[in-house]
Specification:
single chain, 173 residues, mainly alpha, 9 helices, 0% strand
């Protein structure tokens, strides 16, 4: 039995190992195993053939085309629109639910009627205290900030460090 090059992996032997087992040639089988590399990193399972894979286009448009996805449904329209879904009842009465679903798949309506995350419904504002309503109204109309008294941190620290305050703290402890 002749081997053309230095053996490192069992896949280089081809069918020689199986032939020696089938023909019960133990000496050849032992010799072939002894000639293989002892380093585990040279084993065939760590040297699998690699295919040249072409990177597929994973852009949103390509994926939509591949999976045949319809147009994107917006969360809310750019402008406030109270009339979203007004024709749904009419189209449902004229035709079936399937046609309404089809129309919504072809031209999806926004899920909400307003795109303002700072919007607070009037019913909620009406249930707030007057001070809260005043603050919300001043924020909406860009009014002046709520008057907060200025704090002099250095004067407060000096007052805490004063002898009178230290005596009061010692007496309470």
């Amino acid at each position: 039995m002749q081997i053309g090059s230095i053996l490192t992996r069992e896949d280089q032997l081809g069918g020689a190992l199986s032939v020696s087992v089938n023909e019960q040639r133990r000496a050849d089988f032992s010799m072939l195993l002894a000639m293989l590399s002892q380093d585990a990193l040279d084993f065939s399972q760590f040297h699998l053939p690699e295919d040249e894979t072409v990177e597929s286009d994973l852009s949103e448009d390509a994926l939509k085309k591949e999976f045949q996805v319809g147009p994107k449904q917006s969360l809310a329209p750019a402008q406030f629109d109270m009339l979203i879904g007004k024709n749904n009842a009419e189209s449902l009465s004229r035709s079936s639910m399937a046609s309404l679903r089809l129309a919504n798949c072809l031209d999806p309506e926004p899920l909400a009627i307003r795109d303002d995350y700072k919007h607070i419904p009037l019913m909620v504002v009406d249930n707030c205290e007057l001070a809260v309503r005043h603050r919300l109204e001043s924020e909406i109309h860009g009014g002046a900030a709520i008057d907060k008294p200025k704090m002099d941190a250095a004067a407060m620290y000096d007052q805490l460090n004063s002898q009178e305050m230290q005596n009061a703290l010692m007496q309470s402890a």
